[in-house]
Every structure is written in structure tokens, then in C-alpha cells.
Amino acid sequence: MDVTNTLAVVMMDVYWVNLEISVTKRVMFNMHIAVIRDLQTNSSHKREKYGCGKISCEDCGKTFTRLSNLHRHHRSAHRSNSFRCQTCGRCFNRRDNYLRHTRNHPDNSDKESYASVKVTNLKNSDNGDKENMCPNQSGSGKSSTDIKDNEAEEVKEDCISEEEAIEGHLKKVFIEATDKSKYDPLAFLKMKEETIRSILRKERTKRKRIKFYITLQVRFTKTKGDQLEKAKPHFHGRCHILLNNEDIEPTLRESIMKIFNAFIEYQREGSNWVLDKVLGVAIHIVQYNPIKGSSYLSLPAKLASKKAIVNGQNTNQKCFMWSVLAALYPVTNHPERVVNYVQHIEKLDFSGISFPVRVGDIPKFEKRNDISINVFGYEKRELYPLHLTRERGLKHVDLLVLNRGDTSHYCWIKSINRLLNDGQKGNQLYHCHYCLHGFTKQQLLEKHVPNCEVHGAQRTEMPTEEDKWLEFSDVSKQLKVPFVIYADFESILERHYGCQPDPSKSSTIKLAKHIPSGFTYKVVGLSSNITMNHVTYRGHDAVDKFIDHMIKLEDELSGVLRESKPMDLSEEETKAFQEATKCHICNKELGEDTIRDHCHVTGKFRGAAHSNCNLNLRLRERIPVFFHNLKGYDAHHIMNALGKYKHKKINYIPQNHDKYISFSLGRLDFVDTFQFLSTSLDKLSSNLAKEGLHKFPHLQAYVATTHPRNEQTKLQLLSRKGVYPYRYMNSFKKFQETTLPPQQAFYNDLDGKTVSDQDYLHA
């Protein structure tokens, strides 16, 4: 026996003499000493294995230079938690920490405990599953040392942790997912519903009024190339106010349903994300302190100048009472002096109302006294409603709440009209007490109030007999846009070389990287006079050049749209106007208000129209840019480059994280034609060619200009989609070649085929 081992035995004997410990702890101490002996026996082996002076832990492999450090590590990291607080469930490794905690623990005898929350058995399970262990828990139930062996498996354990901030005003309770339900979000939420309900019940009882919302935390994974990506989105329920325990059930169910719907929406709209596991659910709780009036505050100068508010000069916290009494029993002289209303206090029922009065307690006062009360706030020179009465009482009172720091104060609004009017003659309005809308006449206000006090700021109006039919009236949407831009990108396919994926797992194989090599676009106007020639560009900066071209086009075309060309009326058009009997816009009979309608961009006469129809036919200053399969391909190139153009306003309509239905850059609206014609360009062009080459007017104009001698032959060749060696074009050097590559170069990786002899001949 070496010196260290002898010291260990002596230390054990000293402990037996000087410490009064339980049988359970004595057994654990013997186990610990046995571990020390075992470590000493194997110390030479560990030094040989890990190097001179290093000793490793048998459980985790961590190495230490001193034996005392290893002992400390073993006590703190690998010993079972022996001491549990029976009040809050917190566990301690050391007895002195446990005793200190129990001495300083607040008395919770008058508080509701988590009746249905059971804490984790802190003894290591036989299967070594450490995922079910939680070192810091809240709850009640049996101590782990009190649970019998045959009971341990029957206990459904909840691993709960708590965090507090701002001196306990904010609290977060996290329930970790540790059982089989962690793979099903709805099942997990349903299983933990009673636990959450108990936590909310305890916190509501403790704090009286709380705001809370629930967050489900999950982990998604997806395979991207050779890597496994992970995401941890949070799904939030709606924020609710709890004033009593009866509201817990409906608010909790609403939150769970909202969370689950958000989860389903995320999976449907996400891009190949797959649920890995549910991490847990967090309950975020905050003390709810609604606005309440208390001490006297002076009126802001702007409000005082209107002479519309009576500000009671109270010295206690009963400004609500004095303001209501001032409204019900007004006096002429010095209405701000509360002594004028002392004799009327007994006429109102304030039972059950605590002072200072919170806005949330006002409905209770209204019911007991048959008085309707509206409460308004004032901030940044604006009046806004805080409480609008649901029913009109026998008497009505409007109150204003002033806030200054932590102090609030009620005042009586003597005249809502005087308060809201600007004070200038000729601009006087009559305001509704419910929605604050102003009317120019008292009769209009009286007609409005019965609907507003019942339905709020809305009303249901049934159509009359003459106006019971619905018909299309938004005729301006039928007006053709003056300009349309058609565009397309081409890319070189730079080969991708990497490790082969695991054949036993699902994976995506990267074949090539698409690098934009060039673009073509054409601006088409309402007439050939304003239609522009197509533009083609090739280069490494193709995307940046394209966006630069689009920005310049936006400025140029916007200037054309702002100009208004005069109407150039021919004799035939003059005769057609004189003989017209129906409006060409709404197709109704013309009357005395008939005018000549023309296009302000081209100056072309469009037809006879009503004056109102002509005014409603407004030109939208938007320029659509059409790509075929924009969402699936071209948008990726454009969006990667748009970050450089921060001075331009960018809006977008996303389908998911990777795809955009549409987006706009300034006045340019980028639209995917595949959303309207969901087939390939090859099929679309071949179908159109069957109806005749006259269906390609812009192609005809281009060929007539560039190839006038063999126009028909060129039209036949160009009226179908071209054959392109996508795989072969893997670098910009290939563009310098002067001969057509062999037929094998047209091999398609997607379908594993090369082009036919006929297609190669066409190329």
C-alpha cells in the first residue's frame, strides 16, 4: 500500500469519527473511496497511456495533472445528485449548498405548487440515457431517493428549467422534450398541456395579472451537398393577458393551435427541411401592470389651452372617482376643486373597485352604476382610445389618462369636440365618442352613432333594389401597359468535383455550378415606334450589367410615360367618334359627357367614352420584366446581385426561403411567365408556330432587317427553340470556337440522352 492509499484510509477513519452522516451517504462515501483506490491502482497505467504526470477519468476520458483535481472532477461531474429541495425541486451535489438553500428558501406554504408536474429521477438510469437528466428543475413530487424501484418506470418525468430577469418581472419556463413525443409536435404539446396549465395557474395566482406567450422550439435538418444543415426555428403562440384562472384553458388551446398551424405552414413552404426532433416548449411570462390613474398631474400646455378638460386637483389616488363625479355633477366655479363633489360620493357604487383604478376594472364600475365610460390616452400630441364602452349607459363620461414617468392621472373630458378641433373657424367638426371620426354636421353624427356604438367603426349596409347587382367596374386593369421587357439568361456549367455520397443515404449530387455568361432582353411597346431592338451581352459580369441596363431603362421609359402625346385624329376616326353610341370602356350608352379617349404614350385614338370612364382609365407607371421560369432559375442570379443596389427600393413576394413568386426593383416588376404558361419554351414556340409565322411579329421584323434575302428560311429556323450544348459549354473559352461541337457534346445529364440527329442537324 503506497502513501496516497494510506492517507485515503486514514481520511476515511477521520470522517467516521467526526461526521454524523446517514447510512445512504455512508454507502456513497465508501463507493467514492473505492473509486479512489481503483484510480490509485491504475495510476501508473494512465501515466504511461497519457504521458508523464497525466491521469484520466474513467468515465469521460478527461485528463488531469493532479490527483486532487481528478477527485474534484469526479465528485462534481459523475456523482448522482444527492440532495433535493422538497419545495422547489432544485438539486445539489454538496450538502452545505443544499442546507444554505433550504435556510434561505422563501416560504411557499401559501402558494400553489405544480400539482401535476413531476420532476426527473436524478439517479442514472440503467441504460445510461443522460438526455433525460435535468440538473435544475422546478416542480413537486417524490424525491428520487423516495421512489421505489418498481415506481421509477411509471413516473412520467418533466425536465423543467427556469430563468428570470429584471428582478423577477420576466420569467421563462422551459419544458424539455425527453420522451417519445419529441418526434411529434402536436403530441408533445398535448402531452405537456396540463403541465403548462399548472405553471400558468401558479404564476397567475402569485402575480395576480400576467401576460404570457408560448414558444415551441424544434430542430430541422436537410441535406445540402455533402453536408447536413440544421435549423432551430421557434413557433410562437399569441400573446395573452391572464386576469383569472378561467381564461387559462381557452387561451392555452388557442396558442397551441396557432403554434401547430405555424409549424405546418413552415414545413409546407420550407425548402426540403425535415423535422429532426422537438427540443421543448418555453413559457414566457411577464408581470402585467395595466394603466391606472393615481396622483395629480398638470395638463400639457396644448391641452390646457383648449379649455376642454377638467383636471381634478386630488391629493390621493382617487382621481378616477373625482373625474367621474365632476362629469356627473358639474359645477360652474372652480370645477377642478374636488371639494365640490364630496357630497356626491355616496351616490356611486365603488364596492370592489380598488384605488388607483386600472383601466381593466372600469367595465365592472360601468355595470354597477349604469354609466358608460370611454378612456383615451395622449401621446405625441395624438389622442387614442384605451377603453371604449361596449354599451351606452344612462349617462356617459369621457376620461383622459395622462402619463408622466410611472405616474398616471385621470381627467374629465368636458368637450370631445373642442379637444379634437384645431380651433380655427370654419373647421369645426362633430366627433364620435367611439371612433373619434369627425363630421361636418350634427345630423351626420347622430346618424352615425347608433351604428358605431353597436358595431364599432364599421357597419353592414345592404344593397338597394337598384344597386343589387355586382358587375366589373375596375376597367383601368384592362388597359395594356405601354412597355413590356422580355429577358433571359444563359450560363456556363462549370463542372463540380467532390466526394461520392453514401449510397445507403438519400443525398443530392452536385453536377455543375451555373455561372451566368450572358443575357438578352427586348423592350416591346404599344406600337412599333416605341419598340426597341433587342440587346445581347456576354461576359463574366453579366448579372451586374443586366441590372445596370434595367435601371437605365427604368429612367428612360419613365420619362416617356410622363410625357403626354397629343391626339392625332384621322378622318376615319373622327367619323367613328361621331357615329359612336356606346362607351368603348364600360360598353354603356353614351350621353352628353362623351369625349375622345386616346393613348397618352402613342397619341392613338382609342374611341368614344364617358368623361368619368376616361378619368378612371389611368395609366400605371409600372414596367413588367418577364422571364420564363424566373422563380426556379433566373431569380437566383438576380437576387444574388441585388444586394449591391441599396439605393433602389426592392420588394418581393416569397414562396419560400429560396423561391420568389415576383419581385420589383423601383418601377420594374419581375414576373415569371411560367406561372401563367406552365410548360417549356420549346413546346410553347412549337404550338404557336402551328398557327402560322405571323404569330411572331417581332421575330419577323428582326429577320426582315437582318436577313432580307432568305427571310422565310430564317423564320422557319428561328421559330423553334434552339438546340444548345449546355454540358459542353463549361468555360468562356468555348465561345471562341468557330465550329459546331460533335453530337456527343449535346449530352443531357438530366435525362441521360444526347440530341437526336434531327435536332443536331437543326443546330
Describe the structure.
Among the domains are: 3-77, no CATH class; 86-287, no CATH class; 301-420, no CATH class; 428-460. Residues 1-52 and 106-156 have low confidence and may be disordered. The protein has 763 residues and is α+β, with helices and mostly antiparallel strands. The termini are far apart. The strands form 7 sheets. Strands 5, 6, 7, 8, 9, 10 and 11 form a 7-stranded antiparallel sheet that branches. Helix content is 31%, strand content 21%.
The percent range for strand residues is 15-25%
Helix-residue proportion:
25-40%
The end-to-end distance, rounded to whole angstroms, is 92 Å
Shape from CA axes? Answer: flat
Low-pLDDT sequence parts: 1-52, 106-156
> What is the CA-based Rg, rounded?
40 Å
Layout of secondary structure:
Layout: H1 3-18, H2 23-41, H3 43-50, E1 55-56, E2 63-64, H4 67-77, E3 83-84, E4 91-92, H5 95-104, H6 149-152, E5 159-165, E6 170-176, H7 185-191, H8 193-207, E7 210-224, E8 227-231, E9 234-236, E10 240-242, H9 248-269, E11 274-287, H10 301-305, E12 309-310, H11 319-328, H12 362-369, E13 371-379, E14 382-387, E15 395-404, E16 407-413, H13 416-420, E17 430-431, E18 438-439, H14 442-455, E19 483-495, E20 512-525, E21 535-538, H15 542-562, H16 571-579, E22 594-598, E23 605-610, H17 611-616, E24 623-627, H18 630-642, E25 650-654, E26 660-665, E27 668-672, H19 681-689, H20 697-706, H21 711-718, H22 757-762
Parallel strand pairs: 13-15, 19-24, 24-27
Antiparallel strand pairs: 1-2, 3-4, 5-6, 6-11, 7-8, 7-9, 7-10, 7-11, 12-16, 13-14, 15-16, 17-18, 19-20, 20-21, 22-23, 25-26, 26-27
Helix pairs in contact: 1-2, 20-21
